[in-house]
Design brief:
Layout (H helix, E strand, L loop, with lengths): L7 E7 L16 H13 L6 E4 L5 E3 L1 H9 L5 E6 L3 H16 L5 H9 L6 H8 L30 H13 L10
Parallel strand pairs: 2-4
Antiparallel strand pairs: 1-4, 2-3
Helix pairs in contact: 1-5
């Protein structure tokens, strides 16, 4: 088995307004998330670098941290530089958040952790308290909850009859299907 390549080529600090948002960034950050992350940064500060691809200059991970820093007129933020081709950059951009979201949570362990931690930000505390047994817990903990990751696929059909054919075929193979008219 070949060794994993180390694509990290450096660390530094950059003015956040000089970083290039990735034109292919697909993540949206609702207001509650923005406030919660700002609360964490206010209370603790930087604990995670923003990832920047040195070849393209694009942010690969950390768009919200950059946006918040620009909004606060922060002079500099920590970055880690990686060396990726454009294709590799796209793979990483598409993969980091979905892979992180696949992790299961243990609601009891999180509750125990939160009980012993002072959190200064109401927005951060509110975000953390939204983790419930319905959204967290070890796989198999509650037989009524399916913790497996779920994925959505949009299929564009040229006609209603084609849509019905695709819908019936997918349902016949055991897939859950929803028809959305746009």
């Amino acid at each position: 088995m070949p060794e994993w390549k180390n694509r990290i080529i450096g660390h530094g600090v950059e003015a956040p307004d000089q970083l290039l948002a990735n034109p292919r960034n697909w993540r949206l950050h609702p207001e509650a998330q923005q406030k919660a992350l700002a609360g964490l940064l206010d209370q603790v500060g930087w604990v995670q670098d923003v990832i920047v691809n040195q070849r393209t200059g694009h942010v690969v991970d950390g768009h919200l941290r950059v946006a918040l820093a620009i909004g606060r007129q922060e002079a500099a933020i920590p970055v880690v530089y990686v060396d990726l081709s454009e294709h590799e950059e796209q793979v990483v951009l598409a993969s980091l958040d979905p892979l992180g979201a696949m992790a299961a949570s243990d609601a009891d362990a999180l509750s125990e952790l939160l009980a012993g931690v002072a959190i200064d930000s109401d927005d951060l505390r509110a975000a953390l308290e939204k983790v419930t047994p319905a959204t967290a817990g070890p796989p198999g903990d509650d037989p009524g909850i399916d913790y497996r990751p779920q994925y959505g696929v949009t299929v564009i059909c040229s006609s209603e009859s084609e849509q019905e054919r695709v819908y019936d075929e997918l349902r016949g193979r055991g897939y859950e299907c929803r028809v959305v008219v746009v």
